[in-house]
Write a structure and sequence with these properties.
- The complex is a heterodimer of chains A (about 140) and B (about 290).
- A two-stranded antiparallel sheet of chain A has the order 1-2. In chain A, strands 3-4 form a two-stranded antiparallel sheet.
- In chain A, strand 1 (about 65) and strand 2 (about 75-80) form a beta hairpin.
- By secondary structure, chain A is α+β, with helices and mostly antiparallel strands.
- Chain A has four helices and five strands; from the N terminus they run H-H-H-E-E-E-E-E-H.
- The longest helix of chain A has 22 residues, at about 30-50.
- Chain A has helices at about 5-15, 15-25, 30-50, 130-145, and strands at about 65, 75-80, 90-95, 100-115, 120-125.
- The two termini of chain A are about 35 Å apart.
- Chain A is about 40% helix and about 25% strand.
- Chain A is globular, with a radius of gyration of 18 Å.
- Helix content of chain B is about 35%, strand content about 20%.
- Chain B has eight helices and nine strands.
- Chain B has about 290 residues and is of the alpha+beta class.
- In chain B, helix 6 (about 150-160) packs across helix 7 (about 175-195).
- The chains are: A alpha+beta (about 140), B alpha+beta (about 290).
- Chains A and B meet through helix 1, helix 3, strand 3, strand 4 and strand 5 of A and strand 4, helix 6, helix 7, strand 7 and strand 8 of B.
- Strand 4 of chain A pairs antiparallel with strand 9 (about 255-260) of chain B.
């Protein structure tokens, strides 16, 4: 059911011109899709961290990301002049916790301003299993329903 | 001496890049203490003294060192400082074993001509010290592999054993809702680890955008859901993962968020959900969209 160019339509609607251009320049469909997903998760992570929705003004095109071809490449955050969070120090990281899943992590570092966020995010990961959670699920089930 | 002057001003101007600089400093033979987190050195040209302030874990101490070199040598260095390329890291003091980051030197080029009095240096450190919180803060990420099917099975089994809601006339829960219920349990499971409170005692509230938060704000967290995986993040500080942030920490001012997308198996769905996902999942932690 997937339509070719779906990503490009969304990109043109939500992304900055520079981001759209980067995706368009990608070598093939697969590369375009991966770039799109990386940009999307990063953008969503940022608006989530700042506490505004995707559709809330000034939208997703008031800031951009400059990405290299690989997930582990540096992520350059480019806030526009109208972006409320432009003075803050944001750090981003992309992870692939399991195959086929992409996670974008966004941190606002305390007491720092933009340009001072040179240190990469140190991320400690822990995987739980459903068994770990079941006991707690029993306790809270009456309240979550 | 020259490179130290650069470092000094770098530390003041941009604490964020002081990690590499202080590591570099720790390598330098004349520069104790190894456990200092961030350092500040001032160079007074007039007195030919260097003043070093080391910001350690327990505060900061002031250390003053007499310039090891003779007056003549100092003059030569001062002259060279005026003429040599700023980013050149090769012309360093003999005691320097590390390498000054070139970017830092170049970026703060104008600042090198400042010379700070010791008192000014002390004031600068005092002003900057809150920012010199140990830089090794980071993010905890917790994952729970969880498909919709597994969530449904877990809820059914749990409902049966706890005897809560097996009303046959009850409307079947939507898989997304069931997935969120189990995710909710996972969130409480994780947060209770931070707060040492029973899972049932945790009181969550929601912002006007629907983003949940814990009263008191000591544990800042954020979650994201996808079919197959639930992920959450929280901040830690002082290099101790999976522990709450101390209440006095400046990290209380920080924010963390995580967004998870499943893209390999059903790209069309993800591409479509990308434009609508926030509405669909607004109840589970993402900010609502309009």
């Amino acid at each position: 059911m997937r339509k070719a160019g779906n990503e490009m339509r969304i990109a043109r609607r939500y992304f900055t011109e520079a981001e759209t251009a980067v995706i368009e320049r990608a070598s093939d469909e697969e590369a375009r899709r991966r770039l799109f997903v990386r940009m999307w998760t990063l953008k969503e992570a940022y608006v989530k961290a700042i506490g505004r929705g995707i559709g809330a003004p000034p939208g997703l095109s008031s800031f951009g990301f400059d990405l290299g071809p690989h997930v582990s490449d540096d992520i350059v955050f480019l806030p526009g002049d109208n972006e409320p969070g432009r003075h803050d120090a944001w750090s981003f990281r992309l992870l692939e916790p399991v195959d086929g899943s992409l996670a974008a992590l966004c941190l606002k570092r305390p007491g720092r301003r933009r340009g001072e966020e040179k240190e990469p995010i140190v991320a400690s990961q822990r995987f739980s299993t459903l068994d770990d959670v079941l006991e707690d699920l029993v306790k809270i089930l009456p309240t979550v329903k | 001496m020259y490179a130290r002057a650069v470092f000094t001003l770098t530390a003041v101007e941009s604490p964020g890049i002081s990690t590499s600089s202080s590591r570099w400093l720790a390598n330098s033979s004349s520069m104790p203490p190894a456990n200092s987190r961030a350092s500040f050195i001032s160079f007074s040209r007039r007195k030919r003294r260097e003043t070093a302030l080391f910001l350690g874990a327990s505060g900061f101490e002031c250390r003053e060192t007499q310039n090891a070199r003779s007056k003549t040598r100092s003059k030569q260095v001062a002259t060279r400082r005026e003429h040599d390329a700023i980013g050149d890291t090769q012309q360093t003091h003999p005691c320097m074993q590390g390498t000054m980051p070139r970017v830092a030197a170049a970026a703060f080029r104008p600042a090198i001509y400042l010379s700070l009095s010791r008192r000014a240096a002390g004031r600068a450190v005092l002003a900057a010290s809150p920012r010199h919180e140990p830089p090794d803060d980071g993010a905890d990420i917790w994952w729970l592999p969880l498909t919709y099917e597994a969530a449904t099975a877990a809820i059914s089994a749990t409902s049966a054993t706890s005897g809560t809601s097996t009303n046959p006339g009850q409307r079947r829960q939507h898989p997304h809702q069931v997935h969120r219920d189990v995710s909710n349990a996972f969130l409480r499971h994780v947060i209770s680890h931070y707060t040492s409170e029973p899972v049932g005692a945790l009181q969550f509230s929601r912002t006007e955008h629907g983003k949940p938060y814990l009263g008191g704000g000591l544990v800042k967290f954020n979650m994201s859901h996808a079919d197959g995986l639930v992920g959450g993040t929280s901040l830690h500080s002082h290099s101790v993962p999976f522990r709450p942030i101390p209440s006095h920490s400046s990290h209380r001012d920080s924010h963390a968020s995580i967004v998870l997308l499943r893209f390999l198996q059903s790209p069309s769905r993800n591409a479509r959900s990308a434009s609508t996902s926030s509405c669909r999942t607004a109840g589970c932690g993402r900010p609502a969209t309009r």
